[in-house]
């Protein structure tokens, strides 16, 4: 069941989103060769605590960290760890912020030092795909219009869209209806209505879209070992167009 949010509820989510986007801005300043994703996790937890916010992911179905930190061929749900990031790596930091019971969710991919031209293109295409999807998130369109726009653009650039993980509704719960795939046919799926709050979060691979799950039962990585990137925003559907709750 889709839970429609009031203007006041969306404003509460925007407050959580402001903390989240501010956190990502600070992460961008500290990402460099020689830092570990475990250090980033600890930084985020302290940042949120100072602002009376909670890392919603920590403890979710047993997940032990404040962030997901997915490096290179890891698609999503990477565990923060002690190994140091190296020049040329890419890392996606994903987090969900809880402020007074209302949630915001955003992932961002970062370049570590100097990255290859192929990796830079992957980041550029994935970020543009997110905003192409957001352009379709208007009252009267259908979920499939978002999905198709993202898939068409990504594949035109020679990359592939991950099928196994999708966007979703969000509010007081991390995962609400509806699901928002990043692939599909236009004119299909649920019609978008004012007051819906969704995440759009394309995961894009250089190679095949297939994935495998690590032994930790959380981390997904590409089947072929090639790079993957992700950008994600939480947004509200309004009569005046989408409001990006986690805009940086």
TrEMBL record:
Residues that coordinate or bind a divalent metal cation 2: 105, 168, 201, 232
Binding site for a divalent metal cation 1: 94, 105, 232
Binding site for substrate: 77, 175
Peptidase M24 domain location: 11-239
Known EC number: 3.4.11.18
InterPro entries for this protein: Creatinase/aminopeptidase-like, Pept_M24, Pept_M24_MAP, Pept_M24A_MAP1
Cofactor note: Binds 2 divalent metal cations per subunit. Has a high-affinity and a low affinity metal-binding site. The true nature of the physiological cofactor is under debate. The enzyme is active with cobalt, zinc, manganese or divalent iron ions. Most likely, methionine aminopeptidases function as mononuclear Fe(2+)-metalloproteases under physiological conditions, and the catalytically relevant metal-binding site has been assigned to the histidine-containing high-affinity site.
GO MF annotations in UniProt: initiator methionyl aminopeptidase activity; metal ion binding; metalloaminopeptidase activity
Swiss-Prot/TrEMBL GO biological process terms: proteolysis
Reaction(s) catalysed by this chain's protein: Release of N-terminal amino acids, preferentially methionine, from peptides and arylamides
Gene3D superfamilies: Creatinase/methionine aminopeptidase superfamily
Cofactor(s) the record lists: Co(2+); Zn(2+); Mn(2+); Fe(2+)
Role according to the record: Removes the N-terminal methionine from nascent proteins. The N-terminal methionine is often cleaved when the second residue in the primary sequence is small and uncharged (Met-Ala-, Cys, Gly, Pro, Ser, Thr, or Val). Requires deformylation of the N(alpha)-formylated initiator methionine before it can be hydrolyzed.
Keyword terms, alphabetized: Aminopeptidase, Hydrolase, Metal-binding, Protease
Source organism superkingdom: Bacteria
HAMAP family in UniProt: MetAP_1
Entry's family note: Belongs to the peptidase M24A family. Methionine aminopeptidase type 1 subfamily.
Organism from which the protein derives: Anaerosalibacter bizertensis
Protein name per its UniProtKB record: Methionine aminopeptidase
Any Gene Ontology CC annotation: cytosol
């Amino acid at each position: 069941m889709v839970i429609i949010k009031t203007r006041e509820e969306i404003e509460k989510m925007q407050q959580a989103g402001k903390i989240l986007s501010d956190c990502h801005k600070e992460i961008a300043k500290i990402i460099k060769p020689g830092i570990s994703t475990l250090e980033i996790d600890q930084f985020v937890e302290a940042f949120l605590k100072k602002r009376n916010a909670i890392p919603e992911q920590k403890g979710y179905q047993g997940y032990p960290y404040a962030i997901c930190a997915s490096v290179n061929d890891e698609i999503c749900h990477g565990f923060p760890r002690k190994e140091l990031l190296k020049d040329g790596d890419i890392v996606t930091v994903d987090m969900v912020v809880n402020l007074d019971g209302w949630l915001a969710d955003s992932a961002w991919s970062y370049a570590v030092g100097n990255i290859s031209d192929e990796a830079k293109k992957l980041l550029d295409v994935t970020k543009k795909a997110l905003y192409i999807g957001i352009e379709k998130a208007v009252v009267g369109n259908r979920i499939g219009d978002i999905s198709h726009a993202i898939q068409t653009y990504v594949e035109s650039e020679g990359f592939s869209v991950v099928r196994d993980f999708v966007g979703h509704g969000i509010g007081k719960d991390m995962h609400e209806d509806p699901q928002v795939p990043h692939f599909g046919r236009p004119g299909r799926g649920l019609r978008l209505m004012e007051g819906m709050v969704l995440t759009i979060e394309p995961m894009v691979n250089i190679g095949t879209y297939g994935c495998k799950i690590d032994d930790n039962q959380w981390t997904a990585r590409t089947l072929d070992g090639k790079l993957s990137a992700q950008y994600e925003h939480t947004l509200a559907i309004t009569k005046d167009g989408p409001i990006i709750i986690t805009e940086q």
